[in-house]
Design brief:
By secondary structure, this protein is an alpha+beta fold. Helix content is 22%, strand content 17%. The chain is globular.
C-alpha cells in the first residue's frame, strides 16, 4: 500500500536495519519555515527509475518521509531489487532533490529491503502509465 498521509515527525531517527545511502543539504537557518510533506512528495515525483518510466514515489519505492522541526528530512525507501544497477546513484539523486526543496535542511536517504518492493506498491498513476491495471 502506498503511503500518502505522512505526518511530520519531531525527531526522524534512522530506521532499524537500514543503510544510510545518501546525505545532502545543510542545516536550515533558525526560524526558517519548514517544508511540508506534500512539497517533498512533489520533489520525489521528479525522480524517475531509469529502467521504468515512472517516478519513484508512484512506483511505491518511498516507504516513509519524516520531517523534523528543524527541516531535517529523512526518506526511507527501497529499490525494485537489491541488485538494482542504480543502487549507488538513485539515493544520492533523491537526497539532492529533497535537499533542494525550500524548507528542507539536511536530507538523509535510507535504503531498506524489508518489506521487499512488489508491483502491489504501484499507485494508480503508475498503473495507468505502465498500462498495468
Amino acid at each position: 500500500m502506498l503511503h500518502t498521509d505522512f505526518a511530520p515527525s519531531p525527531l526522524p531517527a534512522p530506521p532499524a536495519a537500514a543503510d544510510k545511502a545518501a546525505h545532502a543539504g545543510v542545516p536550515l537557518p533558525l526560524n526558517t519555515p519548514v517544508a511540508s510533506v506534500d512539497a517533498v512528495v512533489e520533489a520525489l515525483r521528479m525522480v524517475f527509475d531509469p529502467e521504468i518510466p515512472v517516478n519513484i514515489y508512484d512506483l511505491g519505492l518511498v516507504y516513509d518521509i519524516r520531517i523534523a522541526a528543524d527541516g531535517q528530512t529523512t526518506i526511507v525507501m527501497t529499490l525494485t531489487a537489491p541488485a538494482c544497477p542504480v543502487a549507488g546513484e538513485l539515493p544520492v539523486q533523491v537526497a539532492e532533490v529533497v535537499a533542494a526543496v525550500p524548507g528542507v535542511g539536511e536530507a538523509d536517504v535510507f535504503l531498506v529491503w524489508e518489506p521487499p518492493w512488489t508491483f502491489d506498491r504501484l499507485s494508480d498513476v503508475a498503473r495507468v502509465a505502465l498500462d498495468w491495471y
